Each structure stands twice: as C-alpha cells, then as structure tokens.
Amino acid sequence: MLGIVAYALGVMYTPGPVNFLGLTAGLNGQARASLGFCLGVGTAMLVLFLGFGWAGAAWVQGDILAVIGALGCGYILYLAVRIARTRIDLGNVDHAPRVLRFRDGLIMQLFNPKGVVATLPIATIQFPAEGIHGIPLVIWSLGLAALAIGAPGSYAMLGNLVGSRIRNPRWFRYFNLTMAALLAGVAISIGYEHVWLPFMS
C-alpha cells in the first residue's frame, strides 16, 4: 500500500499546470488567498478517484489485472522518463493578476490530463490489487484527495517563502529527478508483485 502513496506523491507533486499556478500565487504573495483553489483541486481528485475506482473495480478482475498492470507499469516508466527529461523555465510562468478560487481549481484539475494520469493507475490497478473497494475505497480516495490539496498548496507556500530564489530551474531539476526515481521504483515494484509473480505462478 506504500506504493499507492509513493506513486500519488510522485505524480501529484511534480511540476505541472496546477502546481505552477500554486507557485505563481505564492510568488505573487497570494499563498493564503489561494486556499480555495487548492481545495478545488482536491475535490476534483476525489471525484476522479471515486469515479475510476468504482468503474475500475467492475472490470479489473482476475488475469486482466496482470495485463493492465503491465500496461500501467509501462506508462508509469514512460512518465518517469518524461519527468526526468523535463527542463523547467520559470521565467515563462504567467503571473495571474487575480486570486485563484475553488471553481478555478475544480475545473482545471477535472480537465487536467495529469489528474487522470495520477488517478487512473491507482484506481484501476493498485486499488483492486490491494483489495480496496467499498468504504475503504472512499477512505483512500479522501486521503489521496487531501494529498492532492497539498500539492499546489506546497508550491504556493514555497513560492511565498523562497520568492525570487525559486526562479533557479536547477532546484526543480533535482526535484524532477527525485520524483522520476520514485516513480520508476513504484513501477518496478508493481510490475514484480502484480505482473511477474502472477505470471510465474
């Protein structure tokens, strides 16, 4: 179950459009005012986790889990490589003049491909593999949604605290490499436990 949290952290906390908006709010001194935006992001992730979790549990059964697991591991590794190769240019961040609200976070995250990338493998591969369904599915979804609130929130706080020093892309490069390594480790773990071992048995 640690793999679920590790994957969620690796995907949610890497630079992306929602996190950059949080960073922008922090750089503009709007970290506290953007709390509604962060809550909107978390609410969107809760909707995605529950939606994919309930739909996924109905069709991810038996041997098909190994096939989906293999595809999911491949995608996670692909994502890790993309993250490791990403070059961050904070000079191109567009500073929003207005305070971001709950509705902004909800709508943006529901239509953010990274939100689907974060939730789909967990809800359709990792949840069924760990026997998480029913009430535990709701509890896990709430917990992971709370982690999602912290992603843009942490970027906002970081932008607020560090200010102009955050503009050095080298620090984001180190962060990306760390997250990419975390994602690769999770992919290998999922592949071994849910693809390789069932295949060999």
TrEMBL record:
Record has Membrane as a keyword: yes
KW Chloroplast (keyword) present: no
Annotated protein name in UniProt: Threonine/homoserine/homoserine lactone efflux protein
Transmembrane segments: 6-27, 34-58, 64-84, 105-125, 137-162, 174-192
Gene Ontology terms for molecular function: amino acid transmembrane transporter activity
Membrane topology: Multi-pass membrane protein
Organism of derivation: Aidingimonas halophila
GO cellular component: plasma membrane
Alphabetically ordered keywords of this record: Cell membrane, Membrane, Transmembrane, Transmembrane helix
Locations listed in the record: Cell membrane
InterPro entries assigned to the protein according to its UniProt record, in alphabetical order: LeuE-type
Phylogenetic classification of the source organism: Bacteria, Pseudomonadati, Pseudomonadota, Gammaproteobacteria, Oceanospirillales
PANTHER family: ARGININE EXPORTER PROTEIN ARGO, ARGININE EXPORTER PROTEIN ARGO-RELATED
Coiled-coil portions: none
Major subcellular site: membrane
